[in-house]
Amino acid sequence: MKLLSWNIQWGRGMDGQVDLARIIRTIRQIDEFDVICLQEVAVNFSSLPGSRGENQVAELSAQLPGYTAIYGAATDVPGSRGGRSQFGNAIFTRLPVGQVWRHLLPWQAELATPSMQRVLVEAVVTTNIGPLRTMTTHLEYYSQHQREIQIDAIRRLHQEACAMSQRKFLAEERSKTFEAFPRSAEAILCGDLNFPATAPERAQILESFNDGTPSFHDTWSVLNPGTPHAPTVGIHPVDFVDRPECYDFVLITSGLVKHLKTHGIDAETKASDHQPVWIELR
Question: Residues 125-153: what's their mean pLDDT?
């Protein structure tokens, strides 16, 4: 099972051009992936630099035949030219998809710090190593406080999902809207977490649970113990970091560690202001 995660900056490359075909070409040049998790995917957002207000979910779907598209809008506001403008994260997968969740993360008021609504998109996919909860998110950039409460929320959602994985379905949950679908304890969490690998937020999200819930493990560190993270931003000059850093992570639960074979980063592409990151589980 191969998964790629990438903050595509609504398809805008380092040349300032929005080019979704280039995004797909770059992904295919790396490998053929079973799951593609993208952050900063826009719909009808013509105010974004370089954008025509295109429906990026539809355009990406058209270039990924055979994939199911799952979109979670964090921002959903009136469009400047009518309709709704949306901004969020997407999962594209060629694996069978079970139940899907779109979790809005907490957004507390901070009067002096910019922030925006954030979302965690979750889909259960069937893989050759069993059903997996695949989750992608994009945490707050400006505020460490917001990131911390968002991480707490993700950890609570993970605990709830693991508890639900132990439930036996009741008779009333076998049909119609009450029908229950499997939800595994094992999970992958990926995305642009907007903190460097040395930040306390990383320790927060990897902290062990005291109730037996499987903890998360950083795939880079599993395969490269004791080695500093390779950077995923700032390899090409950007205005939000002053040196290369790792902001983009793929985390897996304890039961998946033995299946982890590969962690890769494309350090060359300039198709976004972030670099794509991928893993392989076998």
Answer: 97
Report pLDDT for 177: 94
| Neighbour tally for 73: CB within 10 Å | 22
Instruction: Give mean pLDDT, residues 59-84.
Output: 97
Please report where in the chains the tokens 């979670």 appear, as a residue: 72
pTM of the model: 0.97
pLDDT of residue 66: 98
What is the Cα–Cα distance from 39 to 78, expressed in whole angstroms? Answer: 21
pLDDT for residue 167 = 86
7, 272 Cβ separation under 8 angstroms:
yes
Q: How far is Cα 136 from Cα 123, in angstroms, rounded to an integer? A: 9
As to burial, measured by CB atoms within 10 angstroms (0-12 exposed, 13-18 middle, 19+ buried), residue 177 is exposed
Q: Are 247 and 4 in contact (CB under 8 A)?
A: no
CA–CA dist 239, 9 (Å, integer) = 14
d(CA 138, CA 30): 22
- The tokens for 264 are 């890769």
**30, pLDDT greater than 90:** yes
Q: Which helix (H) or strand (E) holds 89?
A: strand 84-93
